[in-house]
Amino acid sequence: MCTAATYRSQDFYFGRTFDYEFNYGEEVVVTPRNYSFQLRHQNALTEHYAMIGIAHMVGDYPLYYDAVNEKGLGMAGLNFAGNAVYRKPREGRDNIAQFEFIPWILGQCATVQEARTLLAHINLVDTRFSEQFPTSQLHWILADRDEAITIEAVGEGLNIYDNPVGVLTNNPPFDKQLFRLNDYSYLSPDQPVNRFSEQLQLQPYSRGMGAMGLPGDLSSASRFVRVAFTKMNSVSGTSESESVSQFFHILGSVAQTRGCCRLENGKYEITIYTSCCNADRGIYYYTTYENHQITAVDMYRENLDGEIPVHYPLVQGEHILLQNAADTTEEKL
Ligand SMILES: C[C@H](CCC(=O)NCCS(=O)(=O)O)[C@H]1CC[C@H]2[C@@H]3[C@H](O)C[C@@H]4C[C@H](O)CC[C@]4(C)[C@H]3C[C@H](O)[C@]12C
């Protein structure tokens, strides 16, 4: 399971949790404008917008899971198992393999509105990157500071939904996720008033009772409601540190702890990384399951006119500040 979300304070933020039972050795990758993205069915993308995100590198080719480009447009792929349907290449269309979709859009579009034009011509195809990798069954959230959409390639074609909550999880399809929010319209950050019966003296006996009924389980449908409620009611200061901190709290509401989601193979799904990218400033912040210290990579500290992606392995291991250490140098615990 994974969850993606957008957030706006002074700047625009875009991020996700990456929940899975194993990792592919993903890294933070900055792809500069002149890296030549070789495409299977189209001409290579040679000059494009620079982007930063998390990808699995195969040689110098970044297989992006999520990224933000230099124009502040963000895109993330999340599992859509059993529902994603990709087609065979077709004459007269832009035939884009699933693993090329993020660079295809982020390389060329500055806004969601511009992406809508490209999406009208696209045919997402099932061409595999290599024998080593299965074709991932994904759906995507695409967002800028003004709007978000969800893109789902299904049996009947490409569905593009307006995403007014700026949130995406996994199954079921997005229209059903959104509709289910109707069931929770009574939830509130305020204390409830007694509407049960005038004949009874009912009173809140704890803070937070306005959100009683907010689903707490780890299913993607429940995470959708939970993160939507958390995000839509979120209040933060506008500084960078307040916004980033708040964003990690929003996604923290759906974090997966090892042991709580056991799979048939006996493994556990956990939140491998959580990201928050300041889309306006090109700074990609992340934490990992075992490293709660926020680490950042700033796209603008790289040569964005270069030709080769620059990649940074995720920093792992907790960094604990021993507050009463004998001297000011960091003492490892
Ligand atoms: C498994 C990841 C999605 C995580 C997620 O949504 N988990 C929820 C699981 S579930 O619903 O609860 O079952 C997806 C997101 C991006 C995917 C990767 C990217 O699409 C890039 C390449 C694409 C290649 O085709 C396959 C390898 C791969 C490197 C993909 C592996 C895997 O499918 C990833 C890493």
From TrEMBL:
Residues 2-310 form the Choloylglycine hydrolase/NAAA C-terminal domain. It catalyses: cholate + taurine = taurocholate + H2O; taurodeoxycholate + H2O = deoxycholate + taurine. GO terms for molecular function: choloylglycine hydrolase activity. GO terms for biological process: lipid metabolic process. Its EC number is 3.5.1.24. The keyword DNA damage does not apply. Keywords: Hydrolase, Lipid metabolism. Pathway: Lipid metabolism; bile acid biosynthesis. NCBIfam families: bile_salt_hydro. Belongs to the peptidase C59 family. This is choloylglycine hydrolase.
